[in-house]
Amino acid sequence: MPQHFRAITLSAALGLVIALPAAAAPESFTIDARHTFPVFEVNHLGFSLQRGRFNQTTGKIAIDREAGTGSIEVTIQAASIDMGIEKWDEAMRGEDYFNAPQYPTITFRASKVAFEGGKVSGAEGELTLLGVTKPVRVAFDGFSCGNHPINKRPLCGGNATVRIKRSEFGMLKGLPGIADDVRIMIPVEAFKDQ
């Protein structure tokens, strides 16, 4: 191949590379603890669904919408459980249930995030509760991103849901009157890191 032709080909290739748009980098978000409160519900004696929530949650979310990949890390403070009655809170923090002194945190970590139509639709990861780690699949509903209407910062949010059997994590107190199946719902909001 003539030298001048090689130079032209190389020049054209370089021009093509320069003209290509840069690949979008993964975006990192920090969970807004003021608007992320995990809520759980469990059947009580076959009569009603009883609910509780946790008041202290932190975490990070990373998403690459172009590549359809991401990761999630959530840490819940077990002692922040709120059942609406202090005596009930104390019982739930105790060794029969969440045993907060021995296991102060509940964690969820996922490195496999699913997308539908460019939006997060689910995640597969591991939930650690009472020192036991199990695989779980979380579904996301209504996930969207935009600018916060008040502070104008980029924000993503949605509603996560997962179902577990508490007995699989060693929480056996009250079975079967207090049901084994537990539904966990987490409204999540997270601000983009600057």
Describe the protein in words.
The structure is a single chain. The termini are far apart. With 194 residues, this protein is mostly beta strands. The chain has an eight-stranded antiparallel barrel. The longest helix is centred in the N-terminal third of the chain and has 17 residues, at 3-19. The protein is 13% helix and 53% strand. The chain is built from two helices and eleven strands; from the N terminus they run H-E-E-E-E-E-E-H-E-E-E-E-E. The protein has helices spanning 3-19, 86-93, and strands at residues 27-31, 39-44, 48-54, 57-64, 69-77, 81-82, 105-116, 119-129, 132-147, 154-165, 178-192. The protein has a single domain (24-192), classed as Beta Barrel (Lipocalin), CATH 2.40.128.
Quick tags:
single chain, 194 residues, mainly beta, Lipocalin, eight-stranded antiparallel barrel, 2 helices, elongated
CA-based shape:
elongated
Helix/sheet category = mainly beta
Strand order of the largest sheet: 1-4-5-7-8-9-10-11
Strand content: over 45%
CATH superfamily heading: Lipid/polyisoprenoid-binding, YceI-like
CATH-level-2 architecture? Beta Barrel
Kindly report the average pLDDT value.
90
Quick summary of this structure?
This protein has 194 residues and is mainly beta. 13% of the residues lie in helices and 53% in strands. The chain has helices at 3-19, 86-93; strands spanning 27-31, 39-44, 48-54, 57-64, 69-77, 81-82, 105-116, 119-129, 132-147, 154-165, 178-192.
